[in-house]
Fold this protein.
Amino acid sequence: MSSDSIKSILQEHRTFEASAAFKQRAHIGSQDQLQAMHAHAEQDPIGFWEEQARELSWGSKWDTPMQWNYPTVEWFVGGTLNASVNCLDVHVATEKRNKAALVWESEEGDVRTWTYQQLLADVNRFANVLLDQGIKKGDVVGIYMGMIPEAVMAMLACARIGATHNVVFGAFSAEALRERMDNSGAVCLITQDGARRRGSVQRLKAVADEALAHLPNIHTVLVAKNVGNDIVMSRGRDHWLHELMAAAPMKHDVQLFDSEHPLFILYTSGSTGKPKGILHTTGGYMTQVKYTSKYVFDLRDDDLYFCTADIGWITGHSYIVYGLLANGASVLMYEGAPNYPEKDRFWDIIERHQATVFYTAPTAIRAFMSWGEAWPRKHDLSSLRLLGTVGEPINPEAWMWYYDVIGRNKCPIVDTWWQTETGSIMIAPMPGVTTMKPGTATQPLPGIMADVVNKDGSPCKPNEGGYLVVKHPWPSMLRTVFGDEKRYRDTYWSHFEPCDKHDGYYFTGDGARKDSDGCFWIMGRVDDVVNVSGHRLGTAEIESALVSHAEVSEAAVVARPDEIKGNALVAFVIVNANVPTARKAELPALLREHVAAEIGPIAKPDEIRITDALPKTRSGKIMRRLLREIAGGGEVTGDTTTLEDHNVLENLR
Ligand code: WTA
């Protein structure tokens, strides 16, 4: 095999189908229906997306559906709309007016509900407050908040007046906040006094103050009152949100904006360098988040949809706020930690509210597994009808556990592959009809032309590992890296430039293979591919083999330079809480053999380190770059602002 291809060694043969009852009620309930959608999208991709766009409410209609000037795209050019109108006003005009839009539970257990009508009234007031503070169309507004309803209102209020929001995850440091505000040129910051997390209070306003000391261009700070902790207000600049909202009118004359008007910037960390401000615009983004929410979550009017992502991530943007509300769904939002007061908080929430759809991340599922199945088994989870995952490849063991222990063998699982950059889901099962296999996000959705290719852009053969690319622009594609068009081109569009063989592909940064059924197996970031004795191995597969061992709950595999093999594999492994200390000493040798037995001796880690925790980003992604540096015995350099817990690094050294 050529050294450019990525060797894929993991094999999984179990398959699962939705039940007849699920199929019968699904939006897409037959293969014929799905194939017809695919056929339409392949013959006329732009017409297909126009059909999806017509599901939104527009002021003036677009005159050009798509304008593609490699690598710059515009969708629905000339059309006007307002994202918040599509999330609120369109439903208030129907019998959904008094339906719950948002059901919120605080960490302390208080529950508050907003109907569509009530949410519209509050968003209108909020929009009027922003206008009154001199915020106008095109301004960038920072949002540094926890999981409280005001965060959703803040996003929708920005969208309503045409301000571009820039949400920064509420547990990021003052420096991370400062950098993201500065880089985006924000003029206003919306924050809150404090957020509850695992029984204690995160003092968001105090952290924001540290950043604000270096942000002279932010002239207005709005503070939502949540915990009631003491804060310092800077006179003239800082205001209590509830006071201004109480005085603001609930009527607001809404304006419509161009389809390509910037809706938000969201920073995402790269493996090297500074975080990138991913820019999304309005019409295309709203089209695709609405379409994917409806079909992938197979939304029904009586659903209560629970997503555990934070709104500081793209998942929160697309699948708590914009996609779900655009469909008039009821969204359940929880403020706090999954293990507070006990490790069954999510299951308790699902049972009490009778949630029907649950969307979380593999890292969370592995944590639930390590806590033991007694916690979910204590609860009646029979209201659930669909489960989802996002964020990284789900190892088949975790998939099976999720299917059995949470889904009670009756809920389809939608393993959804997408990125901050793609804006919405790209590869996922259609839950009524797609045959599921644990560990694969299955196939691209109708309208998405993804493929796995070699370095020269030629398609890979079945089961041959390669680079995951998208061959045709899609509506919710990022438009640029804010303020850095060169980085946009270099990162996403320089690997497969137009040539005599093709018109240029978007490079996702992920490695993948397609199996003989056309299912996509994501092998992780190509930065996480290691070359051992001339074989390029996806570390995700080796990790999956490690966690398939009964005593292991989590694993990360990286390479360190090795004179003989080129690279040696180092595995950092977390074992289950109930594994005795003496046993921990025996495990490394056993685990090496386990990997050899699961996937072959070539993948056997040279070194296994048992550890208590792994360095992760706030969204749960393991920061392999840091582990590589530790494994190689070097100093940790580069950006660590996205690291969740700095103590983890100390302990690993
Ligand atoms: C990874 C999250 C395998 C992938 C929405 C991608 C996945 C990156 C999956 C984007 C999945 C996300 N299976 N890998 N279902 N979903 N990824 O920007 O490497 O936080 O490129 O967006 O996560 O992460 P981001």
In short: The chain has a mean pLDDT of 93. The longest strand covers residues 552-562.
